């Protein structure tokens, strides 16, 4: 039967698209900080979008309407029923809505009975009966009857039951729930709040090509045109499989964050943050950043996804890292440039290319319909038009998404047909013109926000941009959401604006077209003389946003009178030093934002009056005084002068009282904070980190009642926090790390009840005030490095919200008994507390504890007997302690993954229960006193084992078939070399380290990747290693009888030979083609190593005994400094510089030292520092260090005069210099590396 044209039908074959995968219903006071917290985290880590009311409700949103809507928009509801669940009328109303959705939408409902009996719920006994009695007194009987029926219904459902008297752990229940949701609800999972049509097949193909079961290091390039869904496919694979790796990272938008900087540093810092698990990483230079990355990559199985890698500079980074990945690691990149993938394949094996195809017709229609119709019903006519729109988009997901979003909410058939006619006029489906249709439908204000964002705010903080938009009367509260709804703009997890490359390209096309038609509102000037170009332009009165890039400018002089003609200028960015002169009186009247890195001026002009200025960003400036007097900046909200190292004081804020955020980070000369800072009633963020000369904070700081974030870290001359600081009742984060002269905290610190994080590491604090126990919201407390800190308050356990406690390297002797009342504690880090004698009994009450670190607590003799009652404990580190025995209960730690007991000399045996640790993957016993093993040790499924007493472990090792890393040592036990043994059946073994094993090595599996031999004093020769094709790292140390090295394998990446006194000949490094790190030191008979020029292509770093620089090094001289002119003939083929210096150590002060190579391009006025490590093994003997720089490290052009000097440097640690001894450079050389 035909359907009438106006009949409503649902989009995408009547499918229902849930917004959320899971809705969590729970009684907050009972479960928010325990099972619900664990469950939410586990669901999130599994890629399951979960609604939890305290996280997902938007500010100002009505709870009464939002929660039922969230329930309806969820595929699954998990109801956590606890003791006081029924006492909440709100929870019971939620339950009614959940059960209603079960009947109407077929929603999956999973009950979890958390330490309650289902029969008590069914028959309203105990607390449930008491709750119903109270409700009968307050609510109508018909309402209470509905609640009772709901309790009966939920109690009769099959669910999960956690009981007091059972061995089943909470973590086990959580795992089962997540598995149930993933398995039963997978057809409905929403994946990042949008339905992803056609992605399942793509993810399945990626999985197949990734060969996840293989131990090889593999790379996959996802290739395809822009907008085809490369990022979406990669993100979905990452979400689904990242948990199968030790560490993982997904890095989006691999592009420079700022012009004129070192773009590689941005990417390296992103990778270090994501892989290293730190909030921030300060990388001084590219070389050391890569070294840190390699240290992480070589030790863990990694999944690294690099999105949108289309610039060669970043591919070169990946090439430098590709041989550092440990076995089983996977690298995935997305790119539009297939040639880049081909280049990568030339440098590493195992690179596959997957061309992502366009969507088929059905998926195209469904994706378009999802964005056009949402969950509303569509008429048949619109449905048919949707098919035509989808057909024209040609299967390109970005076009389908943007076109669909542009029609969302439009019900007029004539409008749809009109849009389709416009679309058909675009030749060959030009994607920019397709996207342009959506832009053209925007209102004038939304267009302005879009173009400002394209030009000035991509990658910038949303809140700061919104304040500027608001000052321009752009109404961002409605305009920004509209751009999000139209898929033209996104906001990332760091609250920064993000935009698809094609959409940004389309926006730049619009800007260029405006300029061509005499409406130039956004202008970028660069090249040699942007200042002169600006002065030559006409119609400057139309320009609203201007970027002057002086990075390569030859003329940096600018008469500011030119700005009188820019009467509409709102946004100004100057990149690099610019010397302005003239009167500022009649300019910048409409300016809202100034960004100016490296401003050379010493003070803002006194006649500058930007009354509408909202944001002033001038980092790395030469300012000594920001402004004199009280400059009238009545609308200023953001001020950033970080790293302005000459600035001596903050300005008078008397006429800038709207400021909300202040950055003085790294202003090392700052001595005073002006007392008018207390007049900033709206200030939320104050950063004074690294203000080394600052002696005190003004008393008026206590007036900043809205302050949320305060950082005074590394203010090394600060002696105290002013008492009024305790009046900051809204402060949530206080950082004071490295304030070594601060001895005490204010007595009334506990009045700061909103404080969530207090970090006072490496300060002089000796104790905490008792009032700190009033901080119920405190989540993280960091006291590591407080050498004089001896005692915690007796009522420390009252910190009921505390999740992380760190007090490493302090003088703590014991923890108070109340410590076991910290019910929400997850991390207890007490590393190197050398006075710590014991832990409190009752620690088994800390049910959420995941990590205990007691390493180097050398006086600690025992672990609490009830430690086995910690259901969530994953890591226990007690190495270098005085522990004599392990509690039998340790076998009950069902979640324990890592156990470190190395160098526990008094520990002589392991309990039988050790074999019950089924989750244990890493066991460290090196240097311990273990003399016997229980039979149950064979039951362990270890992946990493470091052990002493080889004979003791030999019967056990063959049963440990999962081993990936094995370290054996017979220090002091005298293992007989007449008892050869084999490890060849350990097929998963990747790394083997042995110490003092006698005159021969065991037979190794062919796929070993890392071999380290130490202190084998009778070992005279090694087996032939040339057949070990996967061997990448070989280290041989202190094998004093070793006379000759074998042939080396072809893919060796790192070779270390140290203190092998009998070695007669240097290693033959002619076979390894990928050698990147070579170290041959303190082998007295080896006088030099033949370093071939081809190895510079790797590139290589080397420490070798050579006393001279080879002749093929083009430029060299005696002493520590040389100069040369860069040859123009090498400009096209230049790929980097090799540095070589011959040095002598006069005396040893500290082994951690380096030589700083200062590279200056005197022609271009650029200077860079490159740090090169020097081994400290030998005093008074000439030796060499070699390092290589990529071409991107410093700009070089034909004819440039280059000077390089090598200087001995000091390490810095919390502002304290660490000596490097005396090192003299006798000879130095430079060689230009050219592409092969």
UniProtKB/TrEMBL annotation:
<dbReference type="InterPro" id="IPR055414">
    <property type="entry name" value="LRR_R13L4/SHOC2-like"/>
</dbReference>
<dbReference type="InterPro" id="IPR032675">
    <property type="entry name" value="LRR_dom_sf"/>
</dbReference>
<dbReference type="Pfam" id="PF00931">
    <property type="entry name" value="NB-ARC"/>
</dbReference>
<dbReference type="Pfam" id="PF23282">
    <property type="entry name" value="WHD_ROQ1"/>
</dbReference>
<dbReference type="InterPro" id="IPR027417">
    <property type="entry name" value="P-loop_NTPase"/>
</dbReference>
<dbReference type="GO" id="GO:0007165">
    <property type="term" value="P:signal transduction"/>
</dbReference>
<dbReference type="GO" id="GO:0043531">
    <property type="term" value="F:ADP binding"/>
</dbReference>
<dbReference type="GO" id="GO:0006952">
    <property type="term" value="P:defense response"/>
</dbReference>
<feature type="domain" description="TIR">
    <location>
        <begin position="18"/>
        <end position="185"/>
    </location>
</feature>
<keyword id="KW-0520">NAD</keyword>
<dbReference type="InterPro" id="IPR044974">
    <property type="entry name" value="Disease_R_plants"/>
</dbReference>
<dbReference type="InterPro" id="IPR042197">
    <property type="entry name" value="Apaf_helical"/>
</dbReference>
<keyword id="KW-0611">Plant defense</keyword>
<dbReference type="Pfam" id="PF23598">
    <property type="entry name" value="LRR_14"/>
</dbReference>
<dbReference type="InterPro" id="IPR000157">
    <property type="entry name" value="TIR_dom"/>
</dbReference>
<dbReference type="GO" id="GO:0051707">
    <property type="term" value="P:response to other organism"/>
</dbReference>
<dbReference type="InterPro" id="IPR002182">
    <property type="entry name" value="NB-ARC"/>
</dbReference>
<protein>
    <recommendedName>
        <fullName>TIR domain-containing protein</fullName>
    </recommendedName>
</protein>
<dbReference type="Pfam" id="PF01582">
    <property type="entry name" value="TIR"/>
</dbReference>
<dbReference type="InterPro" id="IPR035897">
    <property type="entry name" value="Toll_tir_struct_dom_sf"/>
</dbReference>
<dbReference type="InterPro" id="IPR058192">
    <property type="entry name" value="WHD_ROQ1-like"/>
</dbReference>
<keyword id="KW-0677">Repeat</keyword>
<keyword id="KW-0433">Leucine-rich repeat</keyword>
